[in-house]
Design a protein that fits this description.
Elements lengths: L1 H19 L29 H12 L1 H4 L8 H5 L4 H4 L9 H15 L4 H12 L2
C-alpha cells in the first residue's frame, strides 16, 4: 500500500514545484556591483519624445536598479540583453513600450523607497505576459 502512495506523493510535489516556480523569463538578474550608467545613451538623443527621454533618464538615475530587472519584452532571449539596463545602452529601449514602461516604473518606485524585490514583484505583475 505504501508503494502506491509514493508515485502520487512525488507527482503532487512535482506539480507544486511547477506551479510555484516563477515564469522562466521572469528570473531577474542580480545587479552587478559598481554598475554605472556610463554606457546608457544620452536622453537628449530622443528630444521631443518625452516618455522615451524619461526612460533614458531613469536608466541614468538608477542603473543599479535596472541592472537587477528582467525585461519582459524578452530581449534577453532575442537580443542577448543581460538586464533592463542593457535596453538603454542601445536604441532598443526607445523602440519598445515595455522597456520604457518598466524603466519609468522602476525609477518611480525606487524614488518612493521601494526595495528591489518590491520593484521586481510590481514589474512582474504589470508586464509579465
Amino acid at each position: 500500500m505504501a508503494r502506491s502512495k509514493i508515485p502520487w506523493t512525488v507527482a503532487a510535489i512535482a506539480a507544486l514545484l511547477f506551479v510555484a516556480r516563477p515564469a522562466m523569463g521572469a528570473r531577474h538578474p542580480e545587479p552587478r556591483p559598481g554598475i554605472t550608467a556610463a554606457e546608457v545613451l544620452p536622453p537628449s538623443t530622443y528630444a521631443g519624445y518625452d516618455r522615451i527621454v524619461r526612460a533614458y533618464e531613469a536608466a541614468q538615475a538608477v542603473p543599479q536598479v535596472l541592472d537587477g530587472l528582467y525585461c519582459h519584452c524578452q530581449c534577453r532571449e532575442n537580443f542577448n540583453h543581460r538586464s533592463l539596463l542593457s535596453c538603454f545602452q542601445s536604441e532598443h529601449g526607445a523602440a519598445c513600450d515595455i522597456c520604457v514602461g518598466e524603466a519609468v516604473m522602476a525609477e518611480e518606485m525606487h524614488r518612493q523607497g521601494k526595495t528591489l524585490d518590491e520593484i521586481r514583484r510590481a514589474i512582474d505583475a504589470r508586464f509579465r505576459s
